[in-house]
Amino acid sequence: MTPHSQTDLAQMIADAKGPLRIIGGGTRAIGRVIGETLDMSAMSGITLYEPGALTLVAKAGTSVAGIEETLAAQNQRLAFEPMDHRTLLGTEGTPTIGGVAAANVSGPRRIAVGAARDFMLGVRFVDGAGNIIKNGGRVMKNVTGYDLVKLMTGAYGTLGVLTEVSLKVLPAVETTLSLTLNGLDDAMAIKAMSAALSSPYEVTGVAHDPSTATTHFRFEGFAASVAYRAAELTKKLSAFGTAAEAQTDWTAIRDVHAFANNQGDVWRISVKPSDAAALTAKLGATAVQYDWGGGLIWALTPEGHDLRTAMGGTAGHATLIRGKGCGPTFHPEPAPIAAITAGLRAKFDPRNILNTGIMS
Prior knowledge:
- The chain is α+β, with helices and mostly antiparallel strands.
- It has 11 helices and 17 strands.
- Among the domains are: 6-171, Uridine Diphospho-n-acetylenolpyruvylglucosamine Reductase, domain 3, CATH 3.30.465; 175-254, Alpha-Beta Plaits.
- The longest helix is centred in the middle third of the chain and has 14 residues, at 223-236.
């Protein structure tokens, strides 16, 4: 099924006799989704763009590349730099803004500016009963009652099918500069990254690759400011070694290119940075990468190995991004949260037809 309008979509959902598998660009095959395909790619196009107000409204099937091209023409950008999963997952298609919103997809800059969820101003969607719902607006301060915008961002289509999103955008940066420290083990690298994040020098990317023992720090902004901040952070990091300017491929870091051609399952783990090094030591992973100062761990494991059993009492959660794994795709929720989740799904999708099975 391929709806061309919100009304079409509402009727298709209302008439559905069984589960629906919602896709946009088809670039993220995450979770065990069953059902007839509901293809949102025909509902595309930017419906409003006001550069002066830093606001953009687009239909859910609009390509991220198209949005970024439109923004670049006005020297603006999506500040949360959404990850492109195609290289890691070996998929094709075109990433869409609806998919980005549905999965709350965010890149290395999240540590500085926030996640995709923090830039969402409003949504239109159709719930599991076929009702058309609008929430939020086109400015940051909205009196909206229940904040369904935040609820829908990251719900993976289980509460409703997004048809349109309103986003806050930001100006592009004048200059980007990266520093690299060499030779640190995981524990020391996380201490260095934490030192950078706790400094006043505004890093917008902090990552560590154990395979090359390289720790990366990114600065963005006006040239004079970038040069000053990089010089000052170099002094602060001297306790860990000599940080030198380097050409760092932040797209490769964002999209985890290092794991793309390696056999095995890929996990995305969110933890406190202070727990990251000790946790990875007991995961049984064949390779790891750290982003967000150690708060995000990418782990490559043998196929069918559920590394969540090794997390023990470590606070955090792990999601299976690539592979069949063992157990549910998403981290099991504590009983009180699971009860809230079930209640929300019963309200927004009473027939349990939207992306059925994605959370299992």
